[in-house]
Design a protein that fits this description.
- By secondary structure, the chain is mainly β.
- About 0% of the residues lie in helices and about 40% in strands.
- The chain is built from no helices and 8 strands.
- The strands form 2 sheets. Strands 6-7-1-2-5-8 form a 6-stranded antiparallel sheet, with no helix packed on it. It has a two-stranded antiparallel ribbon with strand order 3-4.
- The chain is globular and about 55 Å long.
- The model has no long low-confidence stretch (mean pLDDT about 80).
């Protein structure tokens, strides 16, 4: 199944959180927080400004991004969890 977000929304795959601390302690699944970092998989075509023109998106597919902890809507695509969020909820693009 292919999902293309509408308007100023972005489809993000969360990155996996590490299960060990730097000291070697294993964190159980019940104590883990959901990561607020992910990879953009698809983007909408932008939002419509007051003058009617489409403003293009600042992020593109493949970007690694940081987003708010409670941002977006969780969905399942082919059994895998994804997140659809508004571009305004993206806090930063991470460059390695």
């Amino acid at each position: 199944m292919k999902v293309t977000p509408l308007h100023d929304r972005v489809l993000v795959k969360r990155l996996e959180e590490t299960t060990k601390t730097a000291g070697g302690i294993i964190i159980p699944d019940t104590a883990k927080e959901k990561p607020s970092e992910g990879i953009v998989e698809a983007v909408g075509n932008g939002f419509r400004a007051e003058d009617g023109k489409i403003v293009p998106m600042s992020v593109k597919a493949g970007d690694k991004v940081l987003f708010g902890k409670w941002s977006g809507t969780e969905i399942k695509i082919n059994g895998e969890e994804r997140l659809i969020i508004k571009e305004a909820d993206i806090l930063a693009i991470v460059e390695d």
